[in-house]
Amino acid sequence: MDIFETFRKAANPEKAEPMSKYMLNKFPFLGISSPERKKLSRDFLKSKCRDAVDWEFVFKCWELPEREFQYLAADYLEKIAPSLTPLGIPNLKSLIITKSWWDTVDALDAVVGDIALRFPEVKNTLLNWSTDENFWLRRVAINHQLKYKDKTDTVLLEKILVNNLGQTEFFINKAIGWALREYSKISPDWVRCFIEKYGGRMAPLSKREAGKYI
Could you report how far apart the first and last alpha carbons of the chain are, in Å? Predict the structure, then answer.
């Protein structure tokens, strides 16, 4: 039995409806919870990650209607992320701007961030994304360093954040606050200085999120 058939056999229509509703009915769901999905795919992903990245599999998951298949692809990319190189960035960009919503976009920003940490040349791409017309790409640029902690490139972070100040888009203003909030755990003084310098241009949501721990 392949993984696609495994997922379809585990479908639960009673759970599918509220799951879709939670995502504003943007996508149909099979009705598989996150813990169950990870249990069903554990052995499959463990085996698959032994080989080179399979972009054909990833895009097949993205083309299928049910959202759990996009989650499966994101789980796979997260596990195989240490093997990815900048050559994968165009594919990741395509995924980010297709069937876009916060659930998949925020899963992929960690994958992009892992590549950028190992290959600094990707920073220029993310700086370009920070001014893209597609706000999901801008959100990834803003949040790709969330897990960097003391490895955060603050020069890049500041440039990307400043490029996105004065926005009305909720997902951008939330991302700005999120990025600053996470970095405040490492360097509260840097975040305080950022707010002092740019607070007049920051949305109330961004400032509120940024100041949660300082």
Answer: 52
